[in-house]
Amino acid sequence: MQNSQYVIETISLTKVFPDWWGRAKVIAVEDLNLQVRPNEIYGFLGPNGSGKTTTIKMLLNLLHPTKGAAFVLGGTVGDPKISARIGYLPEESYLYKYLTARETLHFYGRIFGLPASVRKARVETLLEMVGLSGMGNRQIGTFSKGMARRIGLAQALINDPDLLILDEPTSGMDPLGTRQMKDLFVELAQRGKTVLLCSHLLADVEDICDRIGILYGGRMQVEGTVRQLLQHRDETQIRTKKLSEPALERIRQIAAAEGKSLEVENPMDKLESFFVRIIAKARQENQRTSGAEVGTGIQGFLADKPVTRSGVLDQLVSVKLPDGSDVEQAAPVMETPQAVSAAHESPDQNVLSRLVEKPQEVTTESVSTPAPAQMQEAPPVKKSILDELVNRPDGGQTQITRPQKPEEPDHA
Amino acid sequence: MHSIWAVARNTLSQALRMKIAVVIILLMLVLLPIMGRIMVGDGTLLGKLQTFTSYSLGLISFLLCVLTIAIAAFTLSNDLKRKHIYLVLTKPIRRAELLAGKLLGIVLLDAMLLAVFGVAVFVLILLIWRYADVPAEQRLKTQAEFFTSRVAIKTELDKAQLTRRAQERYDKLKEQDQLPEGMSFASILGELYGQESMKEQKVDPGQVKEWSFENVRIKNPQDPNAVIFVRYKLQAVSEPPDQKIFSRWRVGDLRQFEVGAQIKTPVPPVDRTDTVRAAQEFAISASVIAPDGHLGLAFYNDPTLNQTTVIPQDVEVLYKTGGFAGNYLRAILLIFVRLIFLAVVGVSLSTWLSFPVTILICLVVFFAGLTNGFIVDAIGSLQTAVGIIYSFTVKPLLWLLPQFDGVYNPGSYIVEGRTLGWTFLAAAASLTLAIKAMLMLLLGIVIFNRREVAKAVV
After folding, report:
1. What is the pLDDT of residues A171-220, one digit of tens each?
2. What sign results for the dihedral spanned by CA atoms A307, A310, A314, A315?
3. C-beta neighbour count of B334 within 10 angstroms
4. Contact B458/A49, CB-based, under 8 Å?
5. CA–CA distance, A39 with A162 (Å, rounded to integer)
6. Residue B361 has pLDDT above 90, yes or no
7. Per-residue pLDDT at B438 exceeds 90
8. Closest to A62 (Cβ–Cβ): which among B5, B10, B453?
9. What's A8-229's CATH class?
10. Burial classification of residue B120, based on how many CB atoms lie within 10 Å of its CB (0-12 exposed, 13-18 middle, 19 or more buried)
11. Where are the domains of chain A?
12. SS3 A309
């Protein structure tokens, strides 16, 4: 089946929308050569009307290309064998409004031909995962946009897909859900799945994507890894716990010796992290909500496939976790203080990743040593994803960072 | 298969949660008992049952047809319009399977509703029968003519022979150079044919006309109480003032008279007074049928009673071949065939037409089907000049139209107690479904497979 090394490959893909007389009216996509490798999160960016959704529709065989071809998992989506391995979350909720959340998931599960027992188990775990287990019997029509979005995500995962195509996945989601979704995508990629993430929420893309491509006017403008495109190669960031004034002075001297100046700040929380913490606190006080609840972590049925990621980060991970995959199966919810999150290439570990990425250039590498130690201390018990989020320290923009509560135990 | 089933279940719940199905169910469950109560027909038990059955079956058929059309036109076009289809077609399902699933869902709904209403009408019929306060004679008549399933053997004019005779007379007139002036060949021939046909059918005062029927095989010939029925209509050349015609019939093996041999089977006389132009029916013991299945029928226009020439028409012999329940079931199935056809038309059209256009065409097809005979006759009687254009354009389209009237009207079978045979049902189903509906469906699948389901949005 798979006759190419790419999960998604388009060859000179072009879509022209003709007017009523058949004359070319709008060129939506032009000569697009998109290549998404296995097991990566590809961020597909572009302003409104740049052809992102049109491209996705052609990948999914909902539109026919005017010229060129699109291959997904080595075939086309019209073929049930290929479709069975894809999960698709469209830009809006296209769910049947008269079905309840549970019926919706059962409906899609039936199309995949999942046996009844498997289907039932998956539906329940997915409902729990997206935080709607209490609302399984409510009709989709009564859901808010974000809640419908969560069901949309659940239906995209019901077949344990190899490829996830996500069109604006976080639109309409609250910050908590957004954060959870992003973590989920990272986790899915870790489990060997490929994700095509289409968005114009740049922060989301920056946080989690391995590679990005920017589309404008139907043409690919630039493509590359996030690190390649965004890294400040002429700056160094150091992060540590609060240092004494003399210690800071000495570091300043070292920097001055190299002819560089030094800025020192205390890192700020991102608003997202702050928000997540407030909600967690309210939840601990058992306040009731009619809205979505916080979901649980990734579910066990989403297959854990051998990951073939390359790069320094993996080496880092493998050093610490020689038997990493086993650990992951034992505790599906990754209890990850900084170090492992860095391995996930999560957003807030820029410092760490930069440190490891450029061992040759950076002289202050030794600062990163606490990370492995922390990882080993991490309790292997399953905790809620929220605790993890709350405990996660933030990088911010400081040169020398002092995580405010890096070692703080889960106060949940 | 599982994907077809998934779509079918979804379509079914969609239809049930669209309030239209519920409304129709409630409407029927209120209307049917009321109809059973207030309908009286001609005042007899038979008349009441005939009227009730005719109207209730008609109403069931009509409402379910409209419901089927509405759902069939709605379900796929709504999926396309509201883009539900994006999430369905990106799953492992072929487009033809999606259509099949939609159809299966509608057909299941129809089957359920038809079963409910069919049983309701059946129960009401039995209730009317049970609680009717009428003399025993009426009950017997009802049992013989309504709660039965009878096959009819019709007499038909030998059209080929009549045409030949008309042609011969035309040739003779031409030979003698006596052709009327200013008339076309066709109209002269038509006139002559009419005369010959009249000559063949009419019975002058004092004359006798005979018909013979072969293969009259009743269900249980040994039963001494078994009866057969003679059904006919009488026309009068000059109508008697009281609209009454006296007729004397002899029913039995008339061949026995010709040979002069001894009479083995009875040939009883039947004397009747009938109203002109109305269908008449009398019953007679089945013992009149000859052992080889032959049955003769003679009509004598007695000059002492009638002064006018009588034209007996639609003469037929009916005999019981089965029970009422089986016949009723087949009549319901004939409605089911109609519903499936409409479902196919609706779903097939909505693969490429919007909801309003689809429902409009479906309704036109439905009403054309109800008046199929009329439409075909009306267009068929156009002048020969447009005949060629007609044969290549409208005629194939008309052929595609379903036929819900005439012999395809299930109500008439039940009302007249006639057998709607399995063979006929199978033939109707295969013509309507296997050929006409399949053609429509294939067209729909081809179009649906080729089209883009997403709209051009940039």
Report:
1. 878 888 888 888 899 999 998 999 999 987 787 788 889 999 998 888 98
2. positive
3. 24
4. yes
5. 9
6. yes
7. yes
8. B453
9. alpha beta
10. middle
11. 8-229, 235-302+318-401
12. coil
Quick check: B9 and A96 CB within 8 A?
A: no
* pLDDT value for A296: 62
Is B202-322 assigned to CATH 2.60.120? yes
Q: Which residues of B touch A60 (CB under 8 A)?
A: 86, 89-90
Q: Do A99 and B7 count as a contact with CB atoms less than 8 A apart?
A: no
Q: A86 and B90: CB-CB below 8 Å? A: yes
Q: How many CB atoms lie within 10 A of CB B428?
A: 20
Q: Which residues pair with A65 in a beta bridge?
A: none
Q: For residue B362, what are the CA distances in angstroms to B66, B99, B113, B282, B359?
A: 9, 17, 20, 43, 5
Whether B122 has a pLDDT exceeding 90, the answer reads yes
Mean pLDDT of B406-418: 89
* Partner residue opposite B82 with nearest CB, options A26, A57, A94: A94
- Measured CA to CA, the distance from residue B78 to residue B17 in angstroms comes to 14
Quick: pLDDT tens for A38-93: 999 999 988 888 889 999 999 999 999 999 999 999 888 778 999 999 999 998 88
Could you say which DSSP state residue A21 is in?
Answer: T
Are B90 and A60 inside 8 Å of each other by CB?
yes
Return the closest-CA partner of residue A276 out of A388, A131, A157. Answer: A388
Cβ A84–B92 below 8 Å, yes or no? Answer: yes
- The alpha carbon of residue A39 is apart from the nearest alpha carbon of chain B, in Å, by 21
Question: Which residue ranges make up each domain of chain B?
Answer: 2-146+324-450, 157-201, 202-322
How many angstroms separate the CA atoms of B249 and B247, rounded?
6
Question: At A208, which amino acid appears?
Answer: I
pLDDT digits (tens, 9 = 90+) for A83-101: 999 999 998 889 999 999 9
Searching chain A, which residue's CA lies closest to the CA of residue B101?
A: A111
Cα separation, A236 vs A354, in Å, equals 8
Q: How confident is the model at residue B278 (pLDDT cuts 50, 70, 90)?
A: confident
